[in-house]
Amino acid sequence: MATGVGLSSAFGRIGSITAPLIIGVFAVQWGFAGVFGMTTAVLAFGITCTLLFAVRTRDRSLEDITMKEVLGAAAPTEPEPKVERGSHA
Question: C-alpha angle with apex 41: 39 to 49, nearest 5 degrees?
Answer without folding.
Answer: 115
